[in-house]
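Appendix B. One record, verbatim.
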Amino acid sequence: MTEKKVEAYLDNGATTKVDPDALKEMKPYFTEKYGNSESLHKKGKEAKKAVEKSRRTIADTINADKKEIIFTSGGTESDNLALKGTAYKNKQKGKHIVTTKIEHDAVLQSAKWLEEQGFEVTYLSVDEEGFVDSEELKQAVNDRTILVSIIHGNNEIGTIQDLKTLAEITHDYSNNAYFHTDACQSYTKTELDVEKQNLDLVTINGHKIHGPKGTGALYIKENTEIDTWQHGGGHENGLRSGTLNVHGIVGFAEAAKKNHKNKQKNIQKMTQLRDKLIQGTLKKIDKTKLNGPEGEKRLPNNINICFNNIEGEALSGYLNRKNIYASTGSACSSLELEPSQVLKEIGLTDQEANSSLRMTLSKFTTQEEIEHTLKELPGVVNRLREMSPL
């Protein structure tokens, strides 16, 4: 009898499979309700109705008003719009921006580009667990500051920042600054409430929460001054031109609704599996350590472990042969051979950073996948250490 092949997909921080219910909701908008949402005829109105229903659904998941949600193609576009749109709209008030050294590349590269356009950017450091020092933020913000952008749940090490405190400091220490957060990794996996946390701009996307790829949104608090950087037909209140991805938006909203409804159940499940994988790995394999914080300070689906004396890329490759799929860092920069900037910022050496592996779970991750990983991982690590001791 052939043994059942077990696959362990542990790269949900890169992307997730589409929820079957989201796919079901999307299907009619490919072949039946396929109108352009800006068209005035029946097909167009049908599509428009679906878009506005989805807008309200997503707004409800973060305690926002539907008119404060702008649909985009994903987290990268939302981050670019948040930084560039607010910077140029508010440059007469000041040209100073504050962010951190552990942001997603969509924020860091946008900040770098804005520096080339004459803006001043302050990059905050973090401690050994990846947390921003609130005192350093207080020292950085002044009345020339027009935007502070700090990631919510870090995409590599899972650190969950205290948005409420950081946003309060931003607004208390500058009369002109807006507070933005990239919440793509944290959305529906921890608390995200724009009213309670006093947020002005929030980036979210669909494919990290079992929605389709190519979908995202930017929450823009009412009366926030922001300009477009994508011109055309004036869609999305003039802020994001382009024919809307109606079927994608519908799938995004369905995935968000399901995750939000079952958030505590999903968090509990992912946390249990996360801790089992962390504890099992550290126990079974010597010379290993967890990168980032423990417990509730960490995203429930994130594991990042340093396996000293081996290359993370090699480890990922050998695990692939065992049908275990993980990554060495952010998927958006995974082709880079340089050590992870995030891991270096929390104090790891280049060698330690290059010896680290990120494993990320989802609500669909099973006990069987974790057990398969814990069964195969020690042997792979030991073999690599024997082959190429560093």
